[in-house]
Amino acid sequence: MGNLPNAPLMSEAALAEGAGVTVKTVRNWRSLGKGPAFVRVTERLVVYRVCDVEAWLAANLVGGAA
Q1: In the chain, which end has fewer C-beta atoms inside a 10 angstrom radius, N or C?
Q2: Containing H/E element for 19?
Q3: 52 CB burial (10 A radius; 0-12, 13-18, 19+)
Q4: Comparing C-alpha atoms, which of 15, 22, 24, 17 is closest to residue 52?
Q5: Residue 15: is its pLDDT beyond 60?
Q6: Strand order in the sheet with 46-49
Q7: CA distance linking residue 66 with residue 56, whole number of Å
Q8: Calpha distance 62→64 (Å, rounded)
Q9: Residue 38: which residues within 8 A CB-CB, separation 6 or more?
Q10: What is the pTM of this model?
Q11: How far apart are alpha carbons 51 and 36 in whole angstroms?
Q12: 23-63, pLDDT tens digit by residue?
């Protein structure tokens, strides 16, 4: 396997905190395919690339100036 990309990563706990929801909600989003893209590092460890979280937030923006 090659080198890991240099993209900043965040845990599901960090995503939950930033979104103001629980980790359980983040896990539910993931199981329903509603959350941001993720990387499954191991069977139990999931991380999110910051760029994917930002893209997901932008895609889900409602109202306001773009």
Answers
A1: N
A2: helix 12-19
A3: middle
A4: 15
A5: yes
A6: 9-11, 46-49, 39-40
A7: 15
A8: 7
A9: 30, 46, 47, 48, 52
A10: 0.83
A11: 10
A12: 999 999 999 999 999 999 999 999 999 999 999 999 999 98
- Residue 47 forms beta bridges with which residues? 11, 39
Quote the CA–CA distance of 6 and 60 in Å, as a whole number: 25
Compute how many other C-beta atoms are within 10 angstroms of the C-beta atom of residue 7.
12
Tokens 């199981």 belong to residue: 31
Tell me the Ramachandran region of residue 26: left when phi exceeds 0, alpha when psi lies from -120 to 50, beta otherwise.
alpha
Structure-token pair, residue 18: 């930033």
Look at residue 49 and give its three-state secondary structure: strand
